[in-house]
């Protein structure tokens, strides 16, 4: 079992929606207040130390020179050609407002009817179709990436095992509402997570609030690709005692290049899922950059490209506030956004970054490149 990528930052208990009384309204009110105070806080905290050069506009050049700052230190929500990425809390507030509205419109409905209506309004056929298409596309790209590795890096038998695992994941998206019967509050949360069960069952679930806050196709590609990657991450493989040379070289490279601290690789997955999370970010990066490349001919200008790149990982900027007790398992957001995503040579080539004679090293299954 893996920790969710998103751990809900706001503890909203709407479980089973049995008695609605004032509780949900109070939660909704609290969330709106949180949202207001968060906006104020962000504005005042967004002042930067004077030594940090802040790009005034999101341009490809500023992504090349200050990737993390450009993505994260602006509170501006940008729209790429496929959509935007709002702060997580906005999605949660919107989901609860929808819930409240349904309740007002249908005071005599049963809890099940209210849940079904909420699900039908959030998990629309269009959104569901989009998620399933993204999932299929990612799965194909991942299998291709694995298949093309040299035999000494990932032997044929290992390729078969990795492919088999990838093909066995089920993306569970309601309706039916009963799909999340043991987790009814997921409809109003931002959580997107992967979970493996005994007997080879592997599922990915997507919280309703995530669909309302993250509309950018590129963000959905990164997010779903990250979760799919967990089916073949090094910690998952370690549990099944599978060792692959390409994984060894990739993790060793992360250590040599100081993407991870000195003892992380030696400690393996015994203490936490850190290496699994790092791997999932790395593989999601490979897939998201392919998505950006595939889409690149449709970008009308550099701004559309820049905004799409920013939106791919924008929601990782504020993870510290919602990871809490799980923070040990995830690399810090600067590592995820800049060292793993922002340094991808293909991404930098797409952005047209000029490397000034020194190529940036990047880790692959074959070690440093
Ligand atoms: Zn993860």
Q: What layout of secondary structure does this protein have?
A:
Elements: H1 23-45, H2 60-65, H3 67-72, E1 79-80, E2 83-84, H4 88-105, H5 111-122, H6 125-147, H7 156-167, E3 169-172, E4 192-197, E5 201-206, H8 208-213, H9 217-229, H10 234-239, H11 245-256, H12 264-267, H13 274-295, H14 302-313, H15 319-323, H16 333-342, H17 345-351, E6 363-364, E7 367-368
Parallel strand pairs: 3-5
Antiparallel strand pairs: 1-2, 4-5, 6-7
This protein binds zinc ion.
Question: What would your notes on this structure say?
Answer:
It is a single chain. With 369 residues, the protein is mostly helical. 53% of the residues lie in helices and 7% in strands. It has one domain. The chain is built from 17 helices and seven strands. The strands form three sheets. Strands 3-5-4 form a three-stranded mixed beta sheet. The longest helix has 23 residues, at 23-45. The radius of gyration is 21 Å and the shape is globular. Residues 1-25 and 36-54 have low confidence and may be disordered. Residues 5, 226, 230, 277, 280 line the site of zinc ion.
Bound molecules: zinc ion
**Helix coverage percent:** 40-55%
Rg, alpha carbons: 21 Å
Quote the distance from N terminus to C terminus: 32 Å
The ordered H/E elements are HHHEEHHHHEEEHHHHHHHHHHEE
Classify the beta-strand content into a percent band: 5-15%
Total discrete domains: 1
Helix and strand content put the structural class at mainly alpha
Q: How many helical stretches? A: 17
Describe the main β-sheet briefly: 3 strands, mixed
Average pLDDT, rounded to a whole number, is 85
Shape: globular
Tally the beta strands: 7
């Amino acid at each position: 079992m893996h920790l969710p990528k998103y751990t809900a930052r706001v503890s909203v208990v709407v479980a089973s929606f049995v008695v609605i009384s004032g509780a949900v309204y109070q939660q909704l009110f609290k969330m709106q207040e949180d949202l207001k105070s968060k906006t104020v806080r962000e504005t005042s905290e967004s002042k930067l130390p004077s030594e940090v050069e802040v790009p005034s506009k999101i341009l490809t050049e500023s992504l090349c020179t200050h990737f993390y700052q450009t993505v994260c230190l602006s509170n501006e929500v940008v729209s790429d050609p496929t959509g935007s990425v709002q702060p997580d809390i906005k999605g949660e507030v919107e989901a609860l407002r929808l819930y409240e509205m349904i309740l007002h419109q249908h005071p005599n409905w049963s809890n099940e009817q209210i849940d079904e209506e909420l699900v039908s309004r959030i998990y629309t056929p269009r959104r569901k179709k989009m998620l399933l298409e993204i999932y299929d596309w990612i799965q194909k790209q991942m299998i291709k990436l694995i298949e093309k590795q040299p035999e000494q890096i990932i032997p044929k038998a290992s390729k078969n095992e990795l492919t088999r695992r990838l093909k066995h994941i089920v993306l569970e998206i309601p309706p039916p509402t009963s799909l999340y019967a043991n987790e009814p509050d997921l409809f109003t949360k931002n959580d997107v997570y992967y979970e493996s069960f005994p007997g080879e069952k592997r599922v990915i679930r997507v919280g309703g609030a995530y669909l309302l806050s993250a509309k950018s196709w590129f963000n959905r590609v990164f997010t779903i690709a990250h979760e799919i990657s967990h089916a073949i991450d090094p910690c998952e493989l370690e549990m099944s005692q599978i060792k692959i040379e390409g994984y060894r070289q990739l993790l060793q490279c992360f250590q040599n290049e100081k993407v991870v601290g000195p003892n992380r690789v030696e400690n393996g997955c015994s203490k936490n899922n850190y290496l699994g999370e790092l791997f999932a970010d790395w593989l999601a990066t490979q897939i998201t950059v392919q998505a950006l490349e595939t889409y690149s001919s449709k970008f009308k200008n550099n701004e559309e490209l820049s905004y799409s790149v920013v939106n791919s990982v924008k929601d990782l900027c504020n993870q510290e506030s919602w990871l809490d007790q799980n923070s040990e398992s995830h690399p810090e957001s600067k590592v995820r956004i800049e060292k793993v995503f922002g340094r991808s040579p293909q991404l930098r080539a797409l952005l047209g970054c000029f490397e000034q004679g020194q190529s940036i090293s990047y880790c692959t299954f074959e070690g440093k490149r």
